[in-house]
Amino acid sequence: MHSLMDMIKKCCVLLIACCSFSAFAQKQDYPIQPVPFTSIKLTDQFWSPKIETNRTATIPASFARCESTGRVKNFEMAAEHKGKFCTTYPFDDTDIYKTIEGASYSLAVHPDPKLSAYIDSLIGIIGKAQEPDGYLYTARTIDPIHPQAWAGPERWINEQKSSHELYNCGHMYEAAVAHYMATGKSNFLNIATKNADLLVRTFGPDKKHVAPGHEIVEMGLVRLYRVTGKADYLKLAKFFIDQRGIKKYNIKSKDVYENGSYFQDNIPVINQDEAEGHAVRAMYLYSGMADVAALTGDSAYIKAIDKIWNNMVGKKMYVQGSIGAVGDGERFGDNYELPNATAYNETCAAIGSVFWNQRMFLLHGNSKYIDVMEKTLYNGLISGVGLDGKSFFYTNAMQVSNSYNQPDLERERSGWFTCSCCPTNVVRMLPSIPGYIYAQNGNDVYVNLFISGTANLSVNKKMLKII
Ligand SMILES: [Zn+2]
Questions:
Q1: Integer Cα distance of 164 and 212 in angstroms
Q2: Whole-angstrom distance, CA of residue 86 vs CA of residue 259
Q3: Which of 149, 143, 175 minimizes the C-alpha distance to 162?
Q4: Residue list, CB under 5 A from ion ligand 1
């Protein structure tokens, strides 16, 4: 536990002397803005070595594993429409996207021409795997007559349960925006917007209806909206969120369906008041709701995520910040169902909780969100990666013993998993950590995490250096 940090009051507000109203009209957004990680240089002894290990060991190992496990080959086969999808899950494409995202963050503060050229070569392969109308999903494109089983016989038919088509899109958008912002190159961004334009043509009030089976496309569309200014992307993010908990027409079975609480799809999001279902899905949904609320002023979303946050933090979170207690379904349990011996606590859920808690802080400015974020970062999240940067926990046990009746939870970290969502989420989380330290709102500067280093900010058009 990071108890010293917990005891120290957060969010020291540095009031900058020179007061005047902003001279320019701002677009509606989070009232508090994070100070980008690119403006911060760390000198601490805890995170700096971990971020350096991520750069020198985790990123190369992750790319190497994307190659050795066939994830890159899937894109190459999709480009040629030839071969057989050679990994296990239809969302394996996202491991490449997430590693490019993390590598891009790293490039932004640590130029590396060799890495940059390698990423460009991967983006070239990804672009060739994209179909002419923008569709990008190797599990189908390799052999559309015999797609991977979870993908379903036609595009989008299995989206609400297993295909993860929109999940792949969301991670692609996050990676493409990261790459564009880090390098200024639009090669990946163009692929992403071509794909997002297909979604805009396909889904909407008078088009196809679906509640994405695994959320993240909502956050990804918001990121694309921020860099392109294209309102259709923001509208589509809201449309997908509002699809949850309402009856939808299944074009395959011709029946009307909703997915239930595992998918946060049992009641409309504005009426939800409990953290339920698959924990990673939930974190990405609530983060997406916060984003859309910040950009549209949707107070009903804020009311809902406020209630859900109180439920999660008060009744469904472990003492070290982990969430998602139940292994069967990687999900939240009932209120106060927080067993030690069988705690699941997926690393991705902790990462998602950091995303969401930062957003809640940016909306409300209350230090309680930073307390949860900090506790999670230092405990429930970082336990997911070993000091070597190449070994990972998918689940983060609260208790491990060698007794014969110990439940079958991980006792040692592994290099990679068949479902390798957690290692590649770590890849993209670590280099962006300096971006969680400071935030600002007009003349106020917030110091949220106590990590040694320097930061350069512009406050009221005056440069401020924090050392
Ligand atoms: Zn995971």
A1: 8
A2: 29
A3: 149
A4: 346, 348, 421-422
Dump pLDDT digits (tens) for 359-372.
999 999 999 999 99
What's the Cα-to-Cα distance from 338 to each of 279, 317, 326, 431, rounded to whole Å?
Answer: 14, 8, 8, 31
Length of the chain: 467
Rounded to the nearest angstrom, the distance between the alpha carbon of 417 and the centre of ligand 1 is: 9
Residue 181 token pair? 């912002």
Which positions are annotated as active-site residues? Answer: 330, 421
Distance between CA atoms of residues 190 and 272, nearest Å? 36
Ligand 1 centroid vs 346 CA: distance in angstroms?
6
Q: Which token pair is 227? A: 């860099």
- What is the pTM for the complete model shown? 0.92
Angle at 364 between CA 362 and CA 368, to 5 degrees: 95
The answer to whether the Cα torsion of 225, 231, 234, 236 is positive or negative is negative
Joined together, the tokens standing for residue 62 give 């992750």
Q: Which residue has the tokens 């009903």?
A: 300
- In tens, the pLDDT along 289-346 reads 999 999 999 999 999 999 999 999 999 999 999 999 999 999 999 999 999 989 999 9
Taken in order of first residue, the domains within the chain and their CATH numbers are: 3-400+410-466 (1.50.10.10)
**What is the separation, in whole angstroms, between the first and last Cα of the chain?**
26
Helices (H), 243-385: 279-296, 299-315, 347-364, 367-375
CA of 330 to the centre of ligand 1 (A): 9
At which residue do the structure tokens 């071509």 appear? 194
**Pairing label, strands 444-447, 438-441:** antiparallel
Contact 374, 381 (CB under 8 A): no
Give, for 79, the enclosing helix (H) or strand (E).
helix 71-80
